[in-house]
Amino acid sequence: MSRENMLAATVLAALALLPGAAVAADADNGAKVFNTCKACHKVGDGAANGVGPVLNGIVGRKAGSFAAYAYSPVLKAAGDQGLIWTEDNIKDYLADPSAFLKKYLTDKGKPDLANGNAKMPFKLADGAAQADVIAYLKTFSK
Description:
The chain is mainly α and 142 residues long. The protein has six helices and no strands. The longest helix has 14 residues, at 3-16. The protein is globular and about 40 Å long. The model is unreliable at 4-19 (pLDDT under 50).
């Protein structure tokens, strides 16, 4: 390996270790991580609401809008205030659903609507796992 290539490889490796460094998401790993979500959420052909709503088409969807699912008042309020499930919003939601919704509503000037909690008690703190799950969910989007 040339000195230039070795230097480039070293710089790239160092950048990958920085907080917030972009790492390619892995949908296959996301499918494995999603196994912990399957108790409440379904995806794919024939998916039906369960404890949580169906997640087909979640990326880009208005929060609280999947048909025939009874959302928590705080999530429904966030959707009514314009919350769209972008990749960044999903990532932040996965880290702490109730805290995310309360912050979103407070930032929208609606702290009175931020009372209560999301129905989802599960938290996924690992950033790489969040990105992988989102990559997996994107495979169920149009």
